[in-house]
Design a protein that fits this description.
With 509 residues, the protein is α+β, with helices and mostly antiparallel strands. It has four domains: 89 residues, RNA polymerase II/Efflux pump adaptor protein, barrel-sandwich hybrid domain (OB fold (Dihydrolipoamide Acetyltransferase, E2P)), CATH 2.40.50; 108 residues, OB fold (Dihydrolipoamide Acetyltransferase, E2P) (Beta Barrel); 56 residues, Irregular (Dihydrolipoamide Transferase), CATH 4.10.320; 209 residues, Chloramphenicol Acetyltransferase (2-Layer Sandwich). It contains 15 helices and 27 strands. A hairpin with a 2-residue loop joins β21 and β22. The radius of gyration is 28 Å and the shape is globular. Its EC number is 2.3.1.61.
Length: 509
């Protein structure tokens, strides 16, 4: 007896959905209420559970197809009869099918770990092992990349890798099988790795094209009406699917004009000479780099971004460091750097100009009565912004310790979601790379970011005399929708005053 799997009711205003992905394939055993397929509408994502236990007998719609409510998705052959009915088809393979569950029962599944509440998927990076390799417990198997950070997946047990289920470049969700390890050391199940390598093949091209999902039905209709193509709209749905809201946002931000420039760029590659093209190297952007690009461009498109500049004489801070650096390091176990002074100066200024520490939420302004300062850190995988929480309540020594700790975690790829969320203001130090002047881009939804730059000796007029002083240009980029020019300039002047007269930090002036 077969049980039908049909599209459930999705809501009063939703009449159709897109098949996002099947969790099972024909012939797989399923339990009642176990998720079988994921449907995506222009509003929500819905998992369809198995109406009965048995074997998935057939799938009648493929991933990417659009189906209406009530449409047939597939059928389940119920009970033990499902397995029995498949056996007579070929007598010889029957023992193999009976042995497979026993072999799998001994295998240890390695699945995609959870990377935090706001992270719903990761991209499989380079595998450190291959099928047949012997691994020890805690050996690194593969690196996963999310839109926030890279994460290494260790081996839970010692044994032999007998199956790799997710290829490099594939997009996986938490709980998805990555590989299997035979703790007995037997490589007998390695023959199962052949289908495993071909199974993720459909997702590989999807990753290279940016998304494997067609636009949601309502989004596709709106895109057609406004002469927009899928590459002109950034999708926010799962696996980059374009939703109706994305199209509305794209139209509001002038996507048509912006995209015409973008679409003309590939056309410019036509005249590239063959001898030059063979010397080029095309490398797919990592998940982290894609997110950095998208967030920075979104910040430019959304905020009314403006930058104001000033310069600060770093002499007083440098003299203070020179005088107390040895004593400071001996007492606190950390070197006295510039970031402690800058972070402290910023928190003082934020208390006086709260708009720079606020954010816009729809038609509301949210003022933050705390200072979580993000510190931009460059790594070999891209820019990350770990957050120093409650920096306004910390001493300079505590700030230096926390920045040092976060910096090490960033370079080692050990930053967690809790380390990079919740920031209210950001400091970016391009001076460590030699930058003399730049205009930093906002770290949305924050309303302000301070750019530090290279300290360079310049002739300055002081009390009517020309003297050589160690000067640094400061840049404050801010969202003009919420921060007025007077507030931005005052903020930057307060930072300058605190650095040129560090006693202000001690006296809270």
């Amino acid at each position: 007896m077969a049980t039908e799997i049909r599209v459930p009711t999705l809501g009063e205003s939703v009449s159709e959905a897109t098949i996002a992905q099947w969790f099972k394939k024909p012939g797989d055993a399923v339990n009642q209420d176990e998720p079988l397929v994921e449907l995506e509408t222009d509003k929500v994502t819905v998992e369809v559970p198995a109406p009965a236990a048995g074997t998935l007998e057939s799938i009648v719609v493929n991933e990417g197809d659009t189906v209406e409510v009530g449409a047939l998705l597939g059928q389940i052959a119920e009970g033990a009869g499902a397995g029995a009915s498949a056996a007579p088809a070929a007598a010889a393979p029957a023992p193999a099918k009976q042995e497979a569950p026993a072999a799998k029962a001994e295998l240890v599944d390695v699945v995609t770990p959870s990377a935090g509440e706001s992270v719903t998927e990761a991209e499989v990076g380079e595998w450190s092992v291959k099928v047949g390799d012997v691994v020890k417990a805690d050996d690194t198997l593969v690196e996963l990349e999310t839109d926030k950070a890279a994460q290494e997946v260790p081996a839970p047990v010692a044994g032999t890798v007998v199956k790799i289920a997710a290829e490099t470049g594939a997009t996986v969700e938490p709980g998805v099988l990555l590989c299997q390890i035979d703790p007995s050391g037997s490589a007998a199940p390695a023959t199962e790795s052949a289908p495993a390598t071909t199974a993720p093949a459909p997702s590989a091209p999807a990753a290279s094209t940016g998304t494997s999902m067609p636009p949601a039905p309502s989004a596709a209709k709106m895109m057609s009406e406004n002469n927009l193509s899928s590459d002109q709209v950034a999708g926010s749905g799962k696996r980059g699917q374009v939703l109706k809201e994305d199209v509305i946002n794209a139209i509001a931000s002038g996507a048509t004009a912006a995209s015409s420039t973008q679409t003309s760029a590939p056309a410019a590659r036509g005249p590239v000479a063959a001898e030059d093209e063979v010397r080029e190297e095309r490398v797919r952007m990592t998940k982290l780099r894609q997110t950095i690009a998208r967030r920075l461009k979104d910040a430019q498109n959304t905020a009314a971004m403006l930058t104001t500049y000033n310069e600060v004489d770093m002499g007083p801070v440098m003299e203070l460091r020179k005088q107390y650096k040895d004593l400071f390091e001996k007492k606190h176990g950390v070197k006295l750097g510039f970031m402690g002074f800058f972070t402290k100066a910023v928190t003082h200024a934020l208390k006086e100009i709260p708009a720079v520490n606020a954010e816009i939420d729809g038609t509301d302004i949210i003022y933050k009565n705390f200072c979580h300062v993000g510190v931009a850190v460059g790594t070999d995988k891209g820019l990350v912004v770990p957050v120093v929480r409650d920096a306004d309540e910390m001493s300079i020594a505590e700030i230096e310790k926390e920045i040092g700790n976060l910096g090490r975690k960033a370079r080692d790829g050990k930053l967690g979601m809790a380390d990079m969320t919740g920031g209210t203001f950001t400091i970016s130090n391009g001076g460590v790379y030699g930058s003399l002047m730049s205009s930093p881009i906002l770290n949305a939804p924050q309303s302000g970011i301070l750019g530090m730059h290279k300290i360079q000796e310049r002739p300055m007029a002081v009390n009517g005399q020309v003297v050589i002083r160690p000067m640094m240009y400061l840049a404050l980029s801010y969202d003009h929708r919420i921060v007025d020019g007077k507030e931005a300039v005052t903020f930057l002047v307060r930072v300058k005053e605190s650095l040129e007269d560090p006693q202000r930090l001690v006296l809270d002036l």
